[in-house]
């Protein structure tokens, strides 16, 4: 699975301003709605339902909210780098400043999980994460991610 | 005459000292310590420095006594909860597993050496049991943390399979020395088994009760108490044996009973036992090393190593897979249990029996058994930790280091006085309160004592004294542990995401797009996990559910899942690679066998 099919440069919010977990998810849902042309409310509801099962904050300031949407035609990612970290109820109790939202079609089965673990692996690499944190523009963040995933695949 | 006496004592002491010092070497290089003990004996022996010792009878006598001490201690140190957790699979391994291994080994030995099936099985019985000392020691020093269920299984198996191997060996030696054949096998041996084990079990339970009763009622001098227990345990061993039961089983059961009877002064008894066990092991290995004559190994070296490899790669794995099959172990776990089939002193000890029974070719038996034990200790002992890591069976340490001291309380078996030193970064040092049930009583700070209520927030370096019921220390350990460094593979172990175990399982199914049956649709995630794990979830357990895997991160004192993780990794393919490689390994071994056979 090519990482570039998961996210496009336009889906990166390089300096999102938000003061709460809910606001972060709301803003990212708005962005996703723009990209895939589905109602924002439906998207937000899906990811909030998943958060109810347990926070998707995976530690070290990173969160990967995700969910499945009916009638979506492909897996779609939205990435946000927050200007100020917000509390995300993560297990390590650290506030979160990097959020990767991943939406998948209802029928995507194993691909959904593969995409998720790809994203999780990407954001587990300390060098990549440090670089992403240091950039202020969508283009640099995007190329860092792509470079890191192609290197790891090789 | 008197000079001789001093000389013998001096030589003996120097050997024990050398063995004891070699333990420093062992922990530095990760060598199986028992191998070093054995080597000290070998080096000092007839083909090394020239110490002559060929009294097989005396060696067997000393070894038996040492084994009784070791088995009592291994029962005594086993918490009954550990025993319960693994009893069924472990006892299956300890009985059917030993029998199966011996038979398979017997067939191979007969085929390879042409010594006859009975003789082969005798050799199989001799090397049929795993060595408690080796297993305990290597699991402890290898620095790996295994899942509870696997660790308990290995410890209980190695502690309980000696009686079976001993029984089989004795039965076969008797059969062979009376010149009996297959027709004598069967009923009488089966009856013998029932008698030995039945008597052993009953005598062990009675003996354990007796020992517990004595300790509770008699107010013996503090220093005398451990000696009294040691003497009583050996009395149980000897009496059971004299009555025709298995003394080895009895002494283990008595230890298990006494060790879990909530005795007062248990900590100091344990410390004494630990010391005695060390001594027993050192002496046993030294004597067995002295008894061996390495120059005679040449003749049997190649077949011995081939048989050892057969035992390690085929006989034990086959027997273990058969025994564990009904218990729902994963294949990786079964493979690991097969690998921890460490042979040790008991095998060498049992190899003396054919000599004493004056069976033809008995010295060759002894030498082959010796080579097999050496191979097993070298190959399996040395690689145990890496194999565990390779099969991904190690779990990250649950908590960081704790500095804790147990203090004895006179006359209070159901409470313990614990003292913790507060370490930097531990939850208590960063503001967590100590729960009321722990009865925090006293704080010592900078040499001054104060009551907990007035001590304010605990500071690093404080000593806190708590007075609690033995059920709770694991929970307290968490509070006093320094922060666990997050290991790199933690996420692999605990899953990328957390899930709330109290949520409905149906919403999880919805989020990840899979179906549950009607019963599970009504359950919480914790209930589904527990159901799929056979009712006893324990730390690190993984329950596949739909396309994901749920992992137990934490259970409370009652075994209820309080924290769970979710892993996205699809079932791993390392196992497949492993099976493929061992598959080809087996055929290579097969070719090797054919090769040696045609050479013969």
Labels describing this entry:
heterodimer, A: 154 residues, alpha/beta, Mannitol-specific EII, Chain A, six-stranded mixed beta sheet, 5 helices, 44% helix, 23% strand, B: 600 residues, alpha+beta, Na+/H+ antiporter like fold, Alpha-Beta Plaits, Uridine Diphospho-n-acetylenolpyruvylglucosamine Reductase, domain 3, five-stranded antiparallel beta sheet, four-stranded antiparallel beta sheet, 23 helices, 8% strand, Probable Na+/H+ antiporter protein (chain B), membrane (chain B)
Describe this structure in words.
The complex is a heterodimer of chains A (154) and B (600). Chain A is α/β, with parallel strands linked by helices and 154 residues long. Chain A is 44% helix and 23% strand. Chain A has one domain (12-153): Mannitol-specific EII, Chain A (3-Layer(aba) Sandwich). Chain A contains 5 helices and 6 strands, in the order βααβββββααα. In chain A, strands 1, 2, 3, 4, 5 and 6 form a 6-stranded mixed beta sheet that branches. In chain A, helix 1 (21-36) packs across helix 2 (40-52) and helix 4 (126-134) packs antiparallel against helix 5 (138-153). The model of chain A has no long low-confidence stretch (mean pLDDT 87). In chain B, 61% of the residues lie in helices and 8% in strands. Chain B is built from 23 helices and 9 strands. Chain B has helices at 2-29, 33-44, 56-76, 80-113, 117-126, 132-141, 148-160, 162-177, 187-217, 225-242, 247-259, 266-291, 297-324, 331-339, 345-350, 352-356, 362-390, 473-480, 490-494, 505-512, 518-521, 525-532, 574-599; strands spanning 403-407, 416-421, 440-445, 448-451, 463-468, 497-499, 542-545, 548-555, 561-567. A 5-stranded antiparallel beta sheet of chain B has the order 1-2-5-3-4, with helices on one face. In chain B, helix 4 (80-113) packs parallel to helix 8 (162-177). The radius of gyration of chain B is 26 Å and the shape is globular. In chain B, 42% of the residues are buried. Residues 485-489 and 570-600 of chain B have low confidence and may be disordered. Chain A binds chain B through residues 49-50, 52-56, 58-59, 64, 67-68, 91-92, 106, 108-110, 112-114, 116-117, 120, 124, and chain B through 486, 491, 496-500, 503, 507-508, 510-513, 525, 547-548, 564, 566, 568-570. Chain B: InterPro entries: Cation/H_exchanger_TM, Na+/solute_symporter_sf, Transptr-assoc_dom. Chain B: It is a multi-pass membrane protein. Chain B: It comes from Fulvimarina pelagi HTCC2506.
């Amino acid at each position: 699975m090519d990482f570039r099919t998961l996210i496009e440069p336009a889906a990166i919010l390089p300096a999102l301003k938000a003061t709460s977990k809910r606001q972060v998810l709301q803003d990212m849902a708005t962005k996703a709605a723009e990209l895939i042309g589905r109602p924002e409310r439906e998207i937000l509801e899906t990811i909030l339902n998943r958060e109810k099962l347990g926070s998707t904050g995976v530690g070290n300031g990173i969160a990967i909210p995700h969910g499945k949407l009916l009638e979506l035609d492909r897996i779609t990612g939205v990435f946000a780098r927050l200007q100020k970290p917000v509390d995300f109820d993560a297990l390590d109790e650290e506030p979160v400043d990097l959020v990767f939202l991943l939406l998948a079609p209802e029928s995507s089965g194993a691909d959904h999980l593969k995409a998720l673990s790809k994203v999780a692996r990407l954001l587990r690499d300390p060098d990549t994460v440090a670089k992403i944190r240091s950039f202020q523009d969508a283009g640099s963040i995007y190329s860092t991610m792509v470079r890191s995933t192609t290197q790891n695949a090789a | 005459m008197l000079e001789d006496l001093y000389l013998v004592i001096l030589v003996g002491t120097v050997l024990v000292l050398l063995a004891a010092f070699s333990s420093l070497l062992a922990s530095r290089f990760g060598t199986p310590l028992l191998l070093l003990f054995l080597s000290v004996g070998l080096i000092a022996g007839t083909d090394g420095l020239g110490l002559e010792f060929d009294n097989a009878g005396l060696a067997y006598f000393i070894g038996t006594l040492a084994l009784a001490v070791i088995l009592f201690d291994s029962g005594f140190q086993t918490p009954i909860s550990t025993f319960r957790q693994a009893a069924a699979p472990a006892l299956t391994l300890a009985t059917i597993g030993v029998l199966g291994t011996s038979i398979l080994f017997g067939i191979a030995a007969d085929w390879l050496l042409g010594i006859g099936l009975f003789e082969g099985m005798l050799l199989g019985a001799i090397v049929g049991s795993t060595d408690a000392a080796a297993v305990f020691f290597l699991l402890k020093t290898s620095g790996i943390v295994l899942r509870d269920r696997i660790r308990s299984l290995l410890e209980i198996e190695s502690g309980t399979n000696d009686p079976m191997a001993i029984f089989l060996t004795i039965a076969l030696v008797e059969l062979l020395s009376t010149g009996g054949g297959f027709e004598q096998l069967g009923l009488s041996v089966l009856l013998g088994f029932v008698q030995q084990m039945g008597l052993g079990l009953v005598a062990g339970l009675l003996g354990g009760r007796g020992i517990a009763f004595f300790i509770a009622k008699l107010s013996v001098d503090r220093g005398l108490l451990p000696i009294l227990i040691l003497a009583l345990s050996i009395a149980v061993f000897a009496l059971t044996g004299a009555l025709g039961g298995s003394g080895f089983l009895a002494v283990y059961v008595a230890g298990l009973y006494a060790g879990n009877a909530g005795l007062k002064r248990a900590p100091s008894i344990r410390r004494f036992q630990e010391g005695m066990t060390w001594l027993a092991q050192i002496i046993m290995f030294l004597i067995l090393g002295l008894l061996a004559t390495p120059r005679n190994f040449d003749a049997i070296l190649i077949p011995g190593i081939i048989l050892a490899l057969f035992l390690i790669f085929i006989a034990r794995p086959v027997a273990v897979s058969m025994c564990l099959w009904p218990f729902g172990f994963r294949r990786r776990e079964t493979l690991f249990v097969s690998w921890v089939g460490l042979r040790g002193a008991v095998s060498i000890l049992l190899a003396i029996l054919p000599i004493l029974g004056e069976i033809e070719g008995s010295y060759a038996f002894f030498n082959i058994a010796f080579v097999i034990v050496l191979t097993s200790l070298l190959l399996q002992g040395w690689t145990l930790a890496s194999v565990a890591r390779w099969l991904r069976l190690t779990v990250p340490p649950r908590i960081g280091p704790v500095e804790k001291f147990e203090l004895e309380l006179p006359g209070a078996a159901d409470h313990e006085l614990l003292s913790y030193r507060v370490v930097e970064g531990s939850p208590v040092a960063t503001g967590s309160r100590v729960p009321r049930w722990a009865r925090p009583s006293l704080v010592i700070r900078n040499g001054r004592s104060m009551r907990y209520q007035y001590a304010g927030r605990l500071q690093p370096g404080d000593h806190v004294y708590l007075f609690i019921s033995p059920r709770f220390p694991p929970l307290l350990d968490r509070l006093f542990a320094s922060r666990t460094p997050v290991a790199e593979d933690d996420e692999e172990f605990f899953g990328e995401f957390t899930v709330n175990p109290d949520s409905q399982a149906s919403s999880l199914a919805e989020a990840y797009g899979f179906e549950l049956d009607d019963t599970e649709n009504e359950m919480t995630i914790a209930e589904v996990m527990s159901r799929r794990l056979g009712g006893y979830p324990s730390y690190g357990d993984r329950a596949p559910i739909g396309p994901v895997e749920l992992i137990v991160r934490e259970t409370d004192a009652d075994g209820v899942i309080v924290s769970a993780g979710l892993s996205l990794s699809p079932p791993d393919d390392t196992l497949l690679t492993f099976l493929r490689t061992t598959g080809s390994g087996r055929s290579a071994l097969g070719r090797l066998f054919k090769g040696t056979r045609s050479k013969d």
